Amino acid sequence: MIKKLKSISNGIKILFNFFKSKAMKDNFHLMPLLIILFIFAVVGILVISSGGVSPLLYPLF
Amino acid sequence: MYSIGISCNFHDSAISVLKDGELIFFSMEDRFSRVKHDSRFPEHAIKYVKEEILKDINNDEIESICFYEDNELKFLEVLNESVTQYPHRLKGFYRSIPEWIFNKFWIKSKMALAFDKDINTTKLGNHHLSHALYGHYSSGRDHNIVVCSDGYGDRHSLSIYQFSGNTYKELLSFNKESSLGLVYTAFTTYFGFKANDGECSLMALSRFGEPLYVDKIRKILNIDSERVYKIDKSYFDFTIDAQCFFSDKFRKELGLPFQDPYTVSSFEQKDVSEEEQYYLDLASSFHFVFEEVYEAIFKQASILGNGDDFVFCGGVAQNCVLVERLERLSFINELHIPLDPGDGGCAIGAAIYGSSASKFNVNQMYCGAGLNQSEIDQSIKILKKVKKNVATELLGSDELAEKVYENLEQRKVVGILRGEMEVGPRALGNRSLICRADDEKSIKKLSFNIKTRALFRPYALIMLEEDAKECIVDYRKSSLLTRMQSVVKVKESFRDKLRFGLHIDGTTRVQIVQQTDNELLYRILKLKKEREGVSFLINTSFNESGLPLIKSPMDAVFFFLDKPLDAMIIGNYYLSK
């Protein structure tokens, strides 16, 4: 459990640093795509870990 | 303080540990996982490091854990390519993005959790800089011009740095579209070999032909007065979606890909058909132009860096035929290549990048996983239970050398597993199979029954320096010749004695063994020299085809039981069937 919490806190730090990094500033046009990707990833993880989703929504994931 | 470097996620994942700037451990993950060129996060190697190398230290003594490249930048590049090349890269986007989002992107967290450290101690390096740092500090020189060339990494496929002490400056770089490493891989697949694995086979194959089709190759790849070299990109397809690296235009220009390169024999070339000869000549022509391009690159580097001591790193530096041509260039005083110039070695560069030390000692030949005496005893016990007629003896170094020589005298093949593993891909005597260089039976046994290796690929020779001086054409003292990193031409008068260690053109890769490098190997060669007048032997890696170098005594015991190996040394045990 502690390891999971640590990895979540690490993940938030990585994302925070990534979005304010110079590389990100140079590729600012990718921001919308990235936000969509990460939202899909988070929602995907939540949905899968909560026991699944209606097959009707599969195309979304 | 300890600094840890990690490389993974592409191929050859590895870990290195520096203590106050001194390399104390380096290993590829595939030695532990037994999956050749394993690219996964090096969990097994990390477990070994924590249990054996860092077991007595306080966790605070780890100052940094550094990844070999800027994977966040790489991720943005993948996205950028997908957007700018839409819709061509759509398939590649779907294939690679989940891997990035769920795995590769979080490498810093993975490294921190693996060593139970705060994420602030982790760093992201730079791919070519990692190559260059390892190359520069392993050279032992203060001033170097470092040329890094590989497939690609962190945007670049070729970079030239100028190093002066602890400072460096990037002089020139080429992007992925100008990747000579990928061009070599494209030709490797065209000639019927596996990408990222069969490059050495193409190098060997190229010596069978004559460079008759240089003009055809120059249409694809050529020297350029303005940009050093130019690649006609219409002949290639380097996108992730590509089925193969070369395009239809490439096929139209050079013909259908070579179907069966393994039919080419090393010892007798007379059976080669006209069609096969075309491909051999084509391979030779490609290699000729490829070498020519690198000559131009090094010339440009010498002008920009205003120096004559060079370091060559990256996957391309493993091409020992190319290295030999570069070594002969008049504007190069000394050429150094680190022991692992490929991506595995980047783990050492990454550890240097993360370290606060001001001096580095990273040129060790053997500092991989060592042997555990209880493991040796256990495996010998199991072996005796399974196979009753195996004789085992516990001996000192002199007696071991004597026993090995007795076997070699009887034309037998002997395996050696001793001490720490070699740094890099070459077996330099601690994980080696050795046999005579003048006995066809031993070589055929080695090629067909033990290693399952294509006959046209020559083996490397080991010898003492006094013999090297006599048998090598234009012998020059070079560190590359003590580590099998370059080829040499053998004098006509010696070719019969070395027949099976030589390539068709009379060249061979060579390891000149010094007493300080490998005591046992030196003693074996010395004995042979005393009794037969010459010290030449064949040395090849102790592994099965498609598997990495043998790591543990148990792996060696299985190998011994499975293969027709006549005798083997594990630690100080001598085993014979």
Q: What class would the helix/strand composition of chain A place it in?
A: mainly alpha
Q: In what order do the strands lie side by side in the largest sheet of chain B?
A: 13-21-20-14-15-19-16-18-17
Percentage beta strand of chain B: 15-25%
Q: Tally the beta strands of chain A.
A: 0
Which pair of protein chains has the largest interface, and what are the residue counts?
A: A-B, 19 and 17 residues
In round numbers, the mean pLDDT of chain B is 90
- What shape does the CA trace of chain B take? globular
Residue windows where pLDDT falls under 50 for at least 5 positions of chain A: none
Shape of chain A from CA axes?
flat
**What separation lies between the terminal Cα atoms of chain B?**
47 Å
Output the structural class of chain B: alpha/beta
Percentage of residues in helical conformation of chain B: 25-40%
The DSSP helix count of chain B reads 19
The largest sheet of chain A is: none
Residue-averaged pLDDT of chain A: 80
What does this structure look like?
The complex is a heterodimer of chains A (about 60) and B (about 575). Helices cover about 70% and strands about 0% of the residues of chain A. Chain A has about 60 residues and is mainly α. Chain A is flat. The model of chain A has no long low-confidence stretch (mean pLDDT about 80). Chain B has helices at about 30-35, 45-55, 70-85, 90-100, 105-115, 125-140, 180-190, 200-205, 215-220, 250-255, 275-305, 320-325, 345-355, 375-385, 395-410, 440-450, 465-470, 520-530, 555-560; strands at about 1-5, 15-20, 20-30, 60-65, 120-125, 145-155, 155-165, 165-175, 220-225, 230, 310-315, 335, 390-395, 415, 430-435, 460-465, 485-490, 505-510, 535-540, 565-570, 575. At the A-B interface, α1 and α3 of A face α3, α4 and α5 of B.
